Amino acid sequence: LPHPRNMLSAYQVATAAGPHLFPFRTEKLSPPAPMVLHPCGRVGRRLIFSSEPSTDGSLFFFFHLFTISRIILRYPNAMNKEERIEYWLSIADYDLETAEAMYSTGRWLYVAFMCHQVIEKTLKAFWCATQEEEPPYIHSHKRLAAGSGLYGIMSEQQKDFLNTVSTYNIEARYPETKDAIARRLNKDACRYIINQTKALQIWIKEQLSLAARQ
Q1: pLDDT of residue 50 exceeding 80
Q2: d(CA 98, CA 77)
């Protein structure tokens, strides 16, 4: 499975000059992209290729969902315990990279959401390392931590952050709920969330290593 960053250079898009400000049927559309004759003999719009990564955070988010969905289709077939742990850890690490990408483009809501995903998937890696059954299909950090025996050894500060980052799950949320979450977020708040996410993820990985040696 290629890394999503490598897929960006192979993604083809066709662009046209000028904005399309309003979706009215009577509005004239943006000027079309240049028409070219393709080798197959058909006439169509010119495709524009770019190897530069997009600064639009939505493109990163699209590739995140695309990649994760492909990986999920492969799990847990033919995976042993170590592979399942690595599966969750690798996705969590990628989510952390995505959170940084969202931060660089000012997508504060998605920064918080990706940090939520980092902790959830790191907890599921710890679950795989310590429990016989597969991690449950839930998004509650507290339930995952408690079910795997991790919550009882967390500090109060870690528990507080766990409860906070759990609220940033925006999947299947109503727009007004997302708006309420977004109003609490800004550059400083998101940098704090990322830093706390990194610290908690490192701690969970340390506990995972200790559990693996026992």
Answers
A1: no
A2: 26
